[in-house]
């Protein structure tokens, strides 16, 4: 048995930071899990980093299921959570139950994430939680709303900050086991983190969240473009390009294979 959602709540109470990263395939999932990452998120950002789309909107539930099953096969310890993609849960509660149910039944992951903290999203989280499906919320910058909100920082006015705080509280009260805070001011993230009994997982939300998440392609320097708050710990695009060029040159010069 791997990590549980209850363990994450205990870590929040103990002040032990939670580490989360995204994955979209078996190989990276194995590496992240062996490195001790706590939450592996099959984020719908895979639409951009693995499938070449401009936004997260086009990725389908079937595509998410395909990637989530591959990730799950690579993981022994981490809690694996899969994003519900755009329009797989917003039409009705029964659509959300059907989509989240497929994710758990067909991939073996332990939870789903959905975006937004408006009343319909909160009701969806409550219903999914009631039937035993662990749900992670996501407020602040919600990339599925890019055509309405853009990719800019959210919660910068008093009214907007209050709205995001109330949304996070409502998601927690509805039964979410954690909530992602994306691209909001540090002081707002600190306030939300102090008020919620469940862990906050920040991305572009400062250092006072209970945990941090990054898109693994950004962390590894694989992304073509990345948000201002992301940090690359290595430039894999350059390393891979050099290896490919070295191979290519050796083949063309008759140096590989040696015999
Ligand atoms: O899709 C994703 O990768 C995400 C993270 C940015 C939290 O939702």
Identify the CATH architecture: Alpha-Beta Barrel
Write down the secondary-structure element order.
Answer: HEHEHHEHEHEHHEHEEHH
Number of contiguous helices:
11
The percent of residues in helical segments reads: 40-55%
**Bound small molecules, which ones?**
3-methyl-2-oxobutanoic acid
What distance lies between the first and last C-alpha atoms, to the nearest angstrom? 48 Å
Categorize the overall geometry.
globular
Q: Which segments are poorly predicted (pLDDT under 50) over 5 or more consecutive residues?
A: none
Question: What radius of gyration results from the CA coordinates?
Answer: 19 Å
CATH H-level homologous superfamily name: Phosphoenolpyruvate-binding domains
CATH topology: TIM Barrel
Broad structural category: alpha/beta
- Percentage of β-strand residues: 5-15%
CATH domain class name = Alpha Beta
The number of E-state strands comes to: 8
- What number of domains? 1
Describe this structure in words.
Helix 6 links the parallel strand 4 and strand 5 (135-140). Strands 1-2-3-4-5-6-7-8 form an 8-stranded parallel barrel, surrounded by 7 helices. It has helices at 5-14, 26-34, 46-49, 61-73, 93-107, 119-130, 146-149, 158-174, 186-195, 216-219, 236-252, and strands at 18-22, 39-42, 79-83, 111-113, 135-140, 178-182, 200-203, 211-214. The chain is globular. Helix 4 (61-73) runs parallel beside helix 5 (93-107). It is an alpha/beta fold. Helices cover 44% and strands 14% of the residues. It has one domain (5-252): TIM Barrel, CATH 3.20.20.60. It is built from 11 helices and 8 strands. It binds 3-methyl-2-oxobutanoic acid. 3-methyl-2-oxobutanoic acid binds at residues 22, 41, 43-45, 83, 180, 203, 213, 215.
């Amino acid at each position: 048995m791997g990590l549980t959602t209850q363990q994450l709540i205990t870590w929040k109470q103990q002040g032990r930071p939670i580490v989360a990263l995204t994955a979209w395939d078996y190989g990276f999932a194995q590496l992240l899990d062996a490195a001790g990452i706590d939450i592996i998120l099959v984020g719908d950002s895979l639409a951009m980093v693995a499938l070449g789309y401009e936004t997260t909107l086009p990725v389908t539930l079937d595509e998410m299921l395909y990637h989530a099953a591959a990730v799950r096969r690579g993981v022994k310890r981490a809690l694996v959570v899969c994003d519900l993609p755009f329009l797989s849960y917003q039409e009705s509660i029964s659509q959300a139950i059907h989509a989240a149910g497929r994710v758990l039944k067909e991939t073996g992951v332990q939870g789903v994430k959905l975006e937004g903290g408006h009343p319909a999203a909160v009701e969806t989280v409550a219903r999914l939680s009631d039937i035993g499906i662990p749900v992670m919320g996501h407020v602040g910058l919600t990339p599925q709303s890019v055509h309405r909100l853009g990719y800019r920082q959210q919660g910068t006015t008093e009214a907007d900050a209050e709205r995001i705080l109330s949304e996070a509280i409502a998601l927690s009260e509805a039964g979410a086991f954690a909530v992602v805070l994306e691209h909001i001011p540090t002081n707002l993230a600190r306030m939300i983190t102090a008020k919620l009994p469940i862990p906050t997982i920040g991305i572009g939300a400062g250092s006072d969240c209970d945990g941090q998440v990054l898109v693994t392609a950004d962390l590894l320097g694989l992304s073509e473009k990345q948000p201002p708050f992301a940090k690359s710990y290595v430039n894999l695009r350059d390393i891979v390009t050099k290896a490919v060029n070295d191979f290519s040159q050796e083949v063309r010069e008759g140096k590989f294979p040696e015999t």
